[in-house]
Amino acid sequence: MKKLTKEEKKLLMRKWKTSQKKEYLLSKDEVEKLFIYLESQLEQTPCQHTRMHTKQWLKNNQPQDKIVDILNEMEEMGGYCDCEVLLNCYEDYDIE
Predict the structure, then answer these.
(1) What's the whole-model pTM score?
(2) Which among 41, 38, 30 has a CA at the least distance from the CA of 70?
(3) Which of 4, 26, 40, 76 shows a CA-CA span of 20 to 30 A to 86?
C-alpha cells in the first residue's frame, strides 16, 4: 500500500470531518469575523499567550451564556491562546 501524501491526508481528513457533520457553536460567518479580528489585533501586538482578544470579540458578539461553551470548544481544537485559536482552530472550523 502506497503512503499518502500530506495533501491526500488533508483531503481525507476534510472529507471525514464533513461526514461527521459537526455542528459548531459559531457559524462560519462568525468564525471568519473572529479570525479577521484576531489577525488585526495580533498584527498590532504579539500574542500574550491568553485568549484576551478572543474573549473580547466573544463578549461583543455573542450572548454571555454561550461564551464559556465556545471557549471550551476552542480548547478541544487546541485554541488555548489567541494565536492558537487562529492556527489550531482554522481547519476544524473548515475556513478556507
Answers:
(1) 0.76
(2) 30
(3) 4
Residue 8, pLDDT score: 79
Cα–Cα distance measured from residue 58 to residue 81, given in angstroms and rounded to the nearest whole number: 14
Report which of 63, 66, 58 is spatially closest to residue 82, judged by C-alpha positions: 58
- Give me the half-sphere count of Cα atoms (radius 13 Å) on the Cβ side of residue 21: 0
Residue 4: predicted pLDDT: 75
Half-sphere exposure in the Cβ direction for 69 (13 Å, CA): 9
Number of helical (H) and strand (E) elements in the chain, helices listed first: 5, 0
Q: What is the pLDDT of residues 36-56, one digit of tens each?
A: 999 999 999 999 999 999 999
Of 26, 3, 4, nearest to 13 by C-alpha is 4
| Residues 81, 83: Cα–Cα separation, whole Å | 6
Which DSSP symbol is given to 59?
A: H
